[in-house]
Amino acid sequence: AAGGSLLAGFAGQLSACGHFLRGWHDDVPFYLLCLTLVCYFLLTSALVLAFIGLQRKQTAPKVHEAFRQSAKAALLGGLAAGLAAEVLCNAGDSLRVVPQNWRVGCGMLGASCGLLLLGLLAAQVDGQAGAPVEETDESSTTGA
Q1: Helix, strand or coil, per DSSP, at residue 114
Q2: Do 135 and 11 form a contact (C-beta atoms < 8 A)?
Q3: How far is CA 84 from the centre of its chain?
Q4: What would the pLDDT profile of 119-128 be if each residue is shown by its tens digit?
């Protein structure tokens, strides 16, 4: 389930990007343009931060952990921006304000962000389910 959600999420991101590029010269509300750019910027930043962190894993574990946390924050921020773009695209009088390419792109962006989030959550749960459970030593808990 995790792999399918992640694959569909990435495909949706690419398809949404195509719609945004086709409608790039359309008159789009500023807030929608900003949220879309922030979403893609943060998602790209998360990949770059994770890559840099992985390069430092063996030599500097604390640096690796800091980059890992930064990548998680950028990823969640990017996913939130994508979902917000979809919500704001469909709010109020947006039928007259948002061009068709951007409307479709925002719908795909929000849905693919949701799929990515579900895929990451499923991968995390799968990882935790496969991890061995540490047994506690009774002598350490009873003080003997």
Answers
A1: helix
A2: no
A3: 12
A4: 888 887 877 7
